[in-house]
Specification:
The complex is a heterotrimer of chains A (738), B (354) and C (188). By secondary structure, chain A is α/β, with parallel strands linked by helices. In chain A, 32% of the residues lie in helices and 17% in strands. In chain A, the strands form seven sheets. In chain A, strands 5-4-18-17-16-6-7 form a seven-stranded mixed sheet, with helices on one face. Chain A has a six-stranded mixed sheet with strand order 24-26-25-28-23-27. In chain B, α3 crosses α13 and α6 crosses α8. Chain C is globular. The longest helix of chain C has 7 residues. With 188 residues, chain C is an alpha/beta fold. Chain C has six helices and nine strands. The chains are: A alpha/beta (738), B mainly alpha (354), C alpha/beta (188).
Chain lengths: 738, 354, 188
């Protein structure tokens, strides 16, 4: 029974989160490190280059890696302090067994493995193979992602494998596959620097991908006009040429209206549309009534501004459109993505220098992880698990009978539902903290508590790991060799800088050991990470995400290779579609009709305010790592409810007053931060925190019908001022001089 | 660059030096008790007295320093002064004697500095009166006659007998060994700082040889040669006495002569910290200044008023024609003003970038 | 090979590019000369109305007000024009510099009774490296390089180093990127 063995406070006491600060006297060994290793940041999809310094098998600091072409030494505050996750007092260094009333008790690797394997066997023999599910994460390298996919299908023989990318960019992936037949941002980001017009929609770039800001600013230095679509005045919007402050959940109305405007004013690339696309007529028929006035009414953005944006976009000769979770975290996430792609295709500006489109992948290996590993409907190389040819090819690579390869399984949130339905009884998770990151997380907690057996692999005791029956201490980004595919589609090398601390093991070793004990050791006998990668290369060969021509040596020599790279002498593909040969069945790019419809949790008289969620710059996702790094926590110690002064006044809410936020899922209290930089009908909460401060207690689990992404970005809520002021500002510290 | 001689400071320094000479004459009973072997030390000390007083006088005449100096004196001699006696004593104890502010920067550094400070201070207390002939010791003749009898010394201060004690007693041990103990403390402290300065990149980048390394070396050399005298006397039967005496004297005199110019002057300056603290306390009682932009308190009204005067005296006019001064803004407020001015300029140009 | 201070490289600031991420603050604390204290300032200008943040390094004035108002002669300017942080043995923690600096730069560390300020990453610049803050800044709000480099990157901006505070003209070593043709910026 996957319940907390002790009250959470006691587990926190022992396993954290505790804050790790650098030694004020300086980290010993930083000045004369044994080695300086060129690797990458462990956090977001930018995967910035960074040099880690190590001394006596300990990471002691960092130096900027000026030569790496994407970030040229630039880093965000998370990157600067990433090294503090090493030598962290919270690090798990022994397998742990959950003993109710006693807590997590250290045990031997052998005992932990034995128990794990016995439980897997028992559950699968009792309830069938699919009753044991796998939840994986895309902080894992390509090698580990690939291995997790193979582990689930070959060792556990379960179809129920999914990953936390399901909360990330699956809407974009599904949309891109529909439109282009391939799921990757179309250009590398250096093309941004010379684009004439750039639309950034639903992407708080400067807080979530800070180093990408540089490329946008460079574009502006070169004269680019920038259009930002966001309900908040985000740092990017402050100086933007046009800021469309639309109501959350109305993205497809906006882009539909822009498409209609382009059609009405003939701001179209007919040559491109006629020769290289399909579905245009049906698509524009859908939006023929989407006038600017209608769009103003739906989105709440002024029609003059929408018109200016449509004109700028329509008339540009080069352009880039970037989006991220803001348009994807919706029950119509895929539609929103398609509405963006429609205006890109109508402009014909793709597959040329400085013309591009793409989603900004959020997680470190969100791109590579979804291509090769642990997506419930996908096989390596972005292959389809239901396509007989694809199944045959991968079964051959894995040396199994195609009949034994499980089919399409449940997606991440559906796995939670299936636990509630008693269809899933056992779970193994790695690098996934659903108790913080999934919506309506009280429901998620109840699911975890229902499990008969839950084993987790992680390097820290995340909130979710507190529910494990067995915990296997795994490894950090810098403790294993590997590769990662950045948001640009650039495959880069992750270097092992240090060994895992005594007692912990490399993630891949743990997976191989479980596989061996499950009797399929012969299929998991990789001598090193490169051997896994070489198998991945073959597995991806011929797929859309073809890595065959990429080798460790080649990556190192070129500081990254862009996939597809089908041959050893192929240089890689930084810019897609220059040949206009799309990967769809008919070889054309597809327009897709998108009709606007409201979100699933609309506001009403009882819940009149829109709640939307997002991130802050100093925290990363569920915060398992960043809530343990002292200065990052200090930078933004707790979530605030951003609220407009007009709304605050109407409700009688004062600055920093505690406000009870209530949705149909639950309620929680946050101090108000009254700012004019948000729409009057919308409030905002960052979601990085657990427990009582968790924004995801309030969000809904309505899923996009295609991508199955939850609708994090729109929840109807009501706000009740409490009259309390629990927040004690640090104003007193502002003027230390007296 | 040679600065013109400050006549006022010259006169005060000369007077101080003459006064010291006078005290030496009185204290040594017209040089009757003066140890001629220490003559070189005497001249070094006199030079140091002159230099220190001269520099100190010049220093406290600078507008910013004068403000603190005058304010502290005024406060201590005002009606309110009694209230500050306790504060001053406590502050002196915590920050000058125990050097709490250094210990807070780092325990090791604090301790090492305390060792050096105690060592130096005690050594001054012993050597200066000795050099000036204010203290001298005589062997009680009776005890010196019989080689087997314990030797008893008498200490004289300003020519008056203070006390007598056997050499082989605790007091004797401490009295005659005191300088050795001082040396050891100084060596421990200075070595700690020296190794930091040789090792830490941050210090290596910013230090200078004459400003940071030389003072430490000098302290160590003075202490080592001083210990050398004892070692020579105890174990080498004075065979190296000449050499040790000369080298020790040399380093001590360099130390003394350099005192008014180099790093060691901070010993003299440091008590000004107390003045700064008193100044804050006085200001706090008079009221706090609110930033014109952030509307938060940032320093005392007294401080802002004085800084306006000081900056003017130093040749800066930070006021505009309406009499508004940049000093009416807190540090954060000033940064905001600059950002707003910059924003306006960028906005007016029609482009934030480019 | 010994590396020295590169006089041809200069500091260029443009706070309108700042995104308030505080990477510079985190990086500054990594500088060896200030022992995990951050010397750079990032703050919201007026959070209730705008997301605007500003970033401020020491401007390294030609005639530093801070050094002039220091009662303890603790602040000095070196031959490269770098105005150094307070000499720890001299600084008496009076905060004159903190309150007098027209740019609001020096920082009083109350616990240490000591003023500390940016010394342009002297441990790095003195050996020919770039300051940590400008190296990591992900927005280009802080840039360290040659005049030619910045001109090529931002041809429509002019670096200025003259600031007007009331009747006073303050010239600095650090430059501010302004609209093309600007010569100065009036702050008050």
């Amino acid at each position: 029974m996957a319940k907390l063995p002790l009250p959470a406070e006691q587990i926190i006491n022992e396993f954290g989160p505790h804050l790790h600060f650098p030694d004020p006297e300086g980290t010993s060994g930083r000045d004369e490190p044994d080695k300086i290793v060129e690797t990458h940041c462990c956090f977001c999809g930018m995967q910035c280059g960074i040099k880690l310094l190590a001394k006596n098998n300990k990471v002691v600091g960092f130096e900027p890696w000026m030569e790496f072409p994407f970030n040229e030494g630039r880093l965000c505050p998370k990157g600067v302090q990433r090294y503090l996750q090493d030598n962290h007092p919270d690090r798990l260094t022994s397998p742990l067994i959950n003993i109710p009333g006693k807590g997590y008790v250290p045990t031997s690797w052998d005992a932990a493995m034995e128990k794990t394997v016995a439980e897997i066997r028992r559950i699968q023999e009792t309830y069938g193979h699919d009753a044991f599910a796998v939840l994986s994460g895309v902080s894992l390298s390509n090698e580990k992602s690939y291995m997790m996919g193979k582990f689930a299908r070959v060792a556990l023989k379960t179809k129920n494998l999914d990953y936390n990318g399901r909360l990330c960019m699956v809407s974009a992936g599904a949309g891109n596959k529909k439109a282009f037949g391939l799921d990757r941002t179309s250009n590398n980001y250096s093309d941004l620097a010379h684009a004439e017009v750039i639309i950034v929609t639903g992407a708080n770039v400067s807080e979530t991908f800070p180093t990408l800001t540089y490329w946008l600013w460079q574009a502006r230095d070169n004269g680019a006009k920038i259009i930002v679509v966001d309900p908040r005045e985000i740092p990017l919007a402050r100086t933007a040429d046009i800021h469309l402050d639309i109501r959350p959940g109305t993205d497809s109305a906006l882009f539909g209206a822009i498409l209609n405007y382009m059609v009405q004013h003939d701001l179209l690339d007919h040559e491109f549309i006629d020769n290289y696309t399909s579905g245009f007529d049906e698509t524009i028929a859908t939006v023929k009534d989407y006038t600017l006035a209608w769009a103003e009414e739906v989105t709440g953005a002024k029609k003059e501004k929408i018109e200016d944006a449509a004109k700028l976009w329509g008339k540009a000769s080069t352009s880039f459109l970037l989006h991220a979770r803001g348009i994807e975290h919706h029950t119509k996430g895929v539609e929103n993505v398609l509405s963006c792609i429609n205006i890109v295709l109508a402009s014909g500006r793709i597959g040329r220098p400085y013309c591009g489109y793409g989603t900004i992948t959020g997680q470190g290996n969100g791109q590579g992880g979804r291509e090769h590993g642990h997506k419930c409907d996908q096989l390596p190389g972005n292959r389809d698990i239901e396509n007989p040819e694809h199944r045959k090819y991968i079964s051959d690579v894995w040396g199994i009978d195609e009949k034994d390869l499980p089919g399409k399984g449940l997606t991440a949130y559906e796995i939670i539902d299936a636990i509630h339905r008693d269809e899933i009884k056992g779970l193994i998770s790695i690098c996934f903290n659903p108790l913080v990151s999934l919506p309506n997380n009280n429901y998620v907690r109840a699911a975890l508590e229902k499990l008969e057996f839950y084993v987790g692999i992680d390097f820290f005791m995340s909130e979710t790991m507190r529910h494990c029956d067995v915990i296997l201490p795994g490894s950090l980004h810098e403790e294993e060799e590997g590769t990662v595919t950045t948001a640009e589609g650039r495959v880069v090398r992750i270097r092992k800088v240090v060994d895992p601390p005594a007692g912990a093991r490399a993630d891949s070793e743990i997976i191989m050991e479980i596989a061996r004990r499950l009797g399929v050791g012969d299929k998991f006998s990789y001598p090193d990470s490169e051997a896994i990668f070489n198998e991945l290369r073959i597995a991806s060969k011929g797929g859309t995400a073809d890595y065959y021509g990429i080798t460790y040596e080649k990556i190192e020599k070129n500081m990254g290779i862009f996939w597809p790279c089908p041959e050893l002498d192929h240089p890689g593909t930084p810019r897609l579609w220059e040949d206009r040969k799309f990967k769809t069945a008919d070889g054309k790019a597809h327009f897709n009709p998108v009709k606007y419809h409201p979100s699933m949790d609309p506001t009403d008289a009882e819940y009149p305010v829109i709640l939307t969620t997002g991130r802050v710059v100093s925290q990363y996702l569920s915060g398992t790592q960043t809530r343990r790094i002292g200065k990052l926590v200090k930078q933004f110690a707790q979530p605030f409810l951003e609220i407009h002064p007009v709304l605050a006044k109407t409700l009688g809410i004062g600055q920093h007053e505690d406000v009870r936020v209530v949705t149909k899922r639950g309620d929680a209290i946050f101090p108000a931060n009254i700012v004019e930089t948000i729409r009057e009908d919308t409030v905002f909460l960052p979601y990085h925190w657990p427990g009582k401060k968790s924004a995801n207690q309030l969000t809904s689990a309505f899923l996009d019908p295609i991508s199955k992404i939850p609708e994090f970005k729109v929840s109807a809520c009501k706000l009740i001022p409490t009259g309390n002021h629990s927040y004690i500002g640090n104003d007193a510290l502002d003027y230390q001089s007296i | 660059m040679l600065k013109p001689v400050d006549l006022k400071a010259f006169l005060i320094a000369s007077t101080a030096t003459l006064l010291t000479l006078l005290m030496i004459l009185i204290g040594s009973r017209r040089l009757q008790n003066f140890d001629a072997a220490l003559i070189a030390y005497l001249f070094g000390t006199l030079f140091a007295v002159f230099g220190i007083v001269y520099r100190y006088t010049v220093w406290i005449q600078r507008p910013p320093t004068r403000v603190y100096f005058v304010s502290s004196l005024k406060t201590l001699f005002s009606k309110d002064g009694l209230n500050f006696v306790g504060y001053t004593l406590k502050d002196f104890l915590l920050n000058i004697i125990f050097q709490r502010f250094i210990i807070r920067r780092s325990k090791y550094r604090g301790l090492a500095h305390l060792f050096m400070a105690i060592g130096c201070f005690l050594a001054f207390c012993i050597t200066i009166p000795l050099t000036f002939g204010w203290i001298h010791f005589t062997l009680v003749p009776d005890s010196g006659m019989d080689p087997a009898a314990p030797k008893i010394y008498t200490a004289h201060f300003f020519g008056f007998d203070v006390m007598s004690f056997p050499v082989k007693s605790i007091i004797g041990f401490l009295t005659f060994g005191a300088l050795n103990w001082c040396s050891i403390l100084v060596i421990i402290g200075a070595t700690y700082f020296l190794q930091r300065r040789l090792k830490e990149p941050g210090l290596i980048a910013t230090q200078t040889f004459e400003g940071d390394i030389l003072p430490l070396l000098l302290l160590i050399l003075v202490s080592l040669t001083g210990l050398g005298l004892t070692l020579d006397y105890e174990f080498m039967h004075g065979k190296a006495y000449e050499f040790m005496a000369v080298t020790h004297a040399f380093f001590v005199i360099v130390f003394l002569v350099w005192m008014p110019f180099g790093k060691f002057f901070h010993i003299i300056q440091r008590p000004a910290q107390i003045g700064a603290h008193i100044y804050k306390e006085v200001g706090r009682k008079q009221g706090m200044q609110q930033c014109k932009f952030t509307h938060k308190e940032y320093t005392t009204k007294l401080h802002v008023a004085d800084l306006k005067k000081i900056t003017k005296e130093m040749g800066f006019n930070l006021e505009n024609k309406d009499g508004e001064s940049i000093l009416d803004y807190s540090p954060e407020g000033k940064r905001d003003l600059l950002a707003i001015a910059h924003f306006k300029a960028r906005k007016q140009s029609g482009d934030f970038f480019g | 090979m010994a590396e020295y201070y590169k006089l041809q490289e200069e500091f260029f600031v443009d706070m309108q590019r700042c995104i308030g991420c505080k990477a510079c603050e985190a990086a500054c604390a990594e500088c060896e000369t200030n022992g995990q204290e951050s010397m750079i300032h990032v703050n919201y200008v007026d959070r209730s109305t705008t997301i605007q943040t500003t970033v401020q390094v020491c401007m390294h004035c030609e005639d530093p007000v801070c050094a002039n108002v220091c009662p303890a002669d603790a602040i000095t300017k070196d031959e490269f024009g770098v105005v150094h942080t307070a000499n720890t043995s001299r600084c008496i923690g009076c905060s004159n510099c903190v309150m007098a600096c027209p740019f609001g730069v020096p920082k009083k560390i109350e616990e240490y009774d000591l003023m500390m300020k940016c010394n342009m990453c002297y441990d790095r610049t003195s050996v020919g490296k770039k300051p940590m803050c400008a190296t990591v800044c992900p927005s280009g709000a802080l840039f360290y390089g040659t005049r030619e480099e910045i001109q090529a990157k931002r041809p429509n901006s002019t670096p200025i180093n003259t600031f007007l505070f009331g009747e006073e003209t303050v010239k600095t070593k650090v430059n501010l990127m302004m609209p093309k043709g600007s010569t100065e910026l009036r702050v008050l």
